[in-house]
């Protein structure tokens, strides 16, 4: 597990800049955090330190939250961020951090451990944003493609191996598809994008996709890369390639986006189509503040159904009051409607009003 935890307490803005320095050591072109809109609400900004951990893919987003919260609080509160390949699950259940930013749910074993850590109280998954899982490709001379879930499943499982396969040709009349091998790239490390796409294909193409390939680290046909950015650069580098990443990791790469066609026309990973999906969202346990979203509920007319939802994993109660006060304040900032309007600038989808209000209610219920 890798960490970027500073050796001393820092104001949130200073911490955000320290994190950027750590990123610079690993990435040749780090980007400063986007400053999100400052809500008009007056935040309590309680003193103390909140420890948050998540996957590297979430780091730019959380850095933006931290720097923006610091500005709103004039550095009175301290939020510390670190990274982990398991999105902070292990550190959370072992009591090393108070919040885990994750795109995957706790397993049954982790859920039991989290309840013990939370003083025999349940842990909650609180949605704060989402990112559409984008199927990217490069095929010189072809700018637009659409595939049915069945054909897409066959591509990623190695059952369709050439771009001029009759199935692809049939679904893309008029496209000049070459007799070229399909090179698949996928994320090596566990990711919410992998889990979201795997679950979607298992649900919509059950005869072509193995139910085993629904975990955050399933492996299909092709080659893997550790970082989402490397999946993008590998697809961009050579014609005949295809892969998938969260839209937040796609950036401005010169690759094309594939549309999914379930039979009612092509669906593309736009903000509007993603918002429709989240508006249709239903919870796995509607009577609880554990707000895990049922992936099957994201399929709706005009909605892009493959969404990687970002959750903040928290104890419902059981932590010291000084921690929960800062936790409620910071999470409340994350789901403030004004803050949320800045999320599209970092490739994230704001929560629709109904889902946002439900998350705000759960945040307020943390004790």
From TrEMBL:
Residues 211-230 are annotated as: Disordered. Residues 211-220 have a biased composition (Polar residues). GO terms for biological process: phosphate ion transmembrane transport. The keyword Signal applies. Belongs to the PstS family. Keywords: Phosphate transport, Signal, Transport. It comes from the Bacteria. PROSITE patterns: PROKAR_LIPOPROTEIN. GO terms for molecular function: phosphate ion binding. InterPro entries: ABC_phos-bd_PstS, PBP_domain, Phosphate-bind_PstS. Pfam families: PBP_like_2. GO terms for cellular component: ATP-binding cassette (ABC) transporter complex. Transmembrane segments: none annotated. Residues 45-338 form the PBP domain. Residues 1-24 form the signal peptide. This is Phosphate-binding protein. It comes from Enemella dayhoffiae.
């Amino acid at each position: 597990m890798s960490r970027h935890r500073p050796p001393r307490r820092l104001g949130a803005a200073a911490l955000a800049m320290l994190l950027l320095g750590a990123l610079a050591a690993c990435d040749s072109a780090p980007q400063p955090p986007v400053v999100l809109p400052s809500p008009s609400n007056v935040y309590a900004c309680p003193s103390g330190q909140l420890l948050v951990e998540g996957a590297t893919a979430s780091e730019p987003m959380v850095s933006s939250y931290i720097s923006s919260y610091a500005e709103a609080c004039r550095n009175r509160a301290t939020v510390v961020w670190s990274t982990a390949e398991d999105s902070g699950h292990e550190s959370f259940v072992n009591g090393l951090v108070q919040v885990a930013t994750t795109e995957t749910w706790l397993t049954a074993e982790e859920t039991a451990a989290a309840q013990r850590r939370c003083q025999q109280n349940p842990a909650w998954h609180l949605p704060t944003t989402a990112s559409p899982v984008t199927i990217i490709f490069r095929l010189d001379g072809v700018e637009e493609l659409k595939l049915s879930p069945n054909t897409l499943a066959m591509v990623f499982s190695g059952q369709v191996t050439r771009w001029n396969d009759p199935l692809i040709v049939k679904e893309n009349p008029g496209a000049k598809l070459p007799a070229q091998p399909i090179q698949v790239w996928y994320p090596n490390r566990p990711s919410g994008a992998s889990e979201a796409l795997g679950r979607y294909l298992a649900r919509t193409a059950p005869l072509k996709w193995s139910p085993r390939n629904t975990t955050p680290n399933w492996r299909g046909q092709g080659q893997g890369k550790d970082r989402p950015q490397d999946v993008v650069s590998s697809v961009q580098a050579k014609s005949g390639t295809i892969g998938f990443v969260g839209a937040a990791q796609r950036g401005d790469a010169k690759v094309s986006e594939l549309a999914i066609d379930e039979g009612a026309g092509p669906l593309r990973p736009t903000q509007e189509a993603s918002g429709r999906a989240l508006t249709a969202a239903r919870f796995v346990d509607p009577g609880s503040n554990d707000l895990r979203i049922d992936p099957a509920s994201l399929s709706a007319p005009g909605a892009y159904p493959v969404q990687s939802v970002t959750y903040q994993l928290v104890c419902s109660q059981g932590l010291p009051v000084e921690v929960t006060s800062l936790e409620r304040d910071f999470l409340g900032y994350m789901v403030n409607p004004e803050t949320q309007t800045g999320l599209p600038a970092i490739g994230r989808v704001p929560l629709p009003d109904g889902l946002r209000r439900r998350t705000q209610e759960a945040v307020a219920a943390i004790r």
